[in-house]
Amino acid sequence: MLLLAGFWPGLAGAGALGLVVGALAGWPNRYAVPLGLFVAAGLLAAAALAAIVPGLAGLWLEGAALILPPYIAGCALGALGRHLVARR
């Protein structure tokens, strides 16, 4: 909860940036990049939960693990919005 309280501006910014990037870029032609991002998010979350990196570097790792999923979700929502608008 402390990380959420401290990183909420970053989480909101990551989600907003993801919406913009997803709306500008649209759906990827190949699914290797989104799959790679999901794998990276999972590995970051696993490393953060295992607490294998101590100190300030561990805080950065936990912050990245916390901020990457809202960015990915924002990208997906922005790309979905672009796809729905282009279809009409």
Radius of gyration: 15 Å
Beta-strand level of the residues, as a percent range? under 5%
The structural class is mainly alpha
Number of strands: 0
Number of helices: 3
What is the arithmetic mean of pLDDT? 87
Summarize the amount of helix as a percent range: over 70%
Using the alpha-carbon principal axes, give the shape.
Answer: elongated
Biggest beta sheet summary: none
Give the end-to-end Cα distance, rounded to a whole number of Å. Answer: 42 Å
**Would you list the SSEs in sequence order as H and E?**
HHH
Poorly predicted runs of 5 or more residues: none
Characterize the structure shown.
The protein has 88 residues and is an all-alpha fold. The protein has a domain at 35-88. The protein has 3 helices and no strands. The protein has helices at 2-25, 32-50, 55-87. Helix 1 (2-25) runs parallel beside helix 3 and helix 2 packs antiparallel against helix 3. It is elongated and about 50 Å long. It starts with a helix and ends with a helix.
Tag the structure with descriptive keywords:
0% strand; transmembrane helix; membrane; mainly alpha; 88 residues; transmembrane
List the helices and strands and how they pair.
Layout: H1 2-25, H2 32-50, H3 55-87
Helix pairs in contact: 1-3, 2-3
Quick synopsis:
This protein is an all-alpha fold. Helix content is 86%, strand content 0%. It has a domain of 54 residues.
